[in-house]
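BUG: 3D viewer hangs when loading the predicted structure for this chain

Environment: internal workstation, default settings.
Expected: structure renders.
Actual: progress bar stalls at 90%.

Input used:
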Amino acid sequence: MMKHLEGRNLAHPGCLIGVTLGLIIGIVLAGVLASVFNVAFNTVLLVWLGITVGLGMIGWIWGAYLTTRQQLAAMRANAAETSEAPERTTKERQNPNLPAGQ
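Structure tokens produced before the viewer hung:
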């Protein structure tokens, strides 16, 4: 599964999951606050918005953290693979069909 996500930025899916959970939890909590505790409408809206934005930010940060960990692991794996292969010059990387002298 991690091979499919290699090189992808996970901050955006993390934010999407966080905002979705924030909307669901925020709407349920706002309904409970409004109906059971008779809290003012402005307060209910602020709680809902705070939960939505807060969980979205947490998801963004968590996704960015997972991305950096994943990229570091991929870089280490690539370094291990390339250390076994012979080093190629820049010209060979640009056009592998040409000899190195051209």
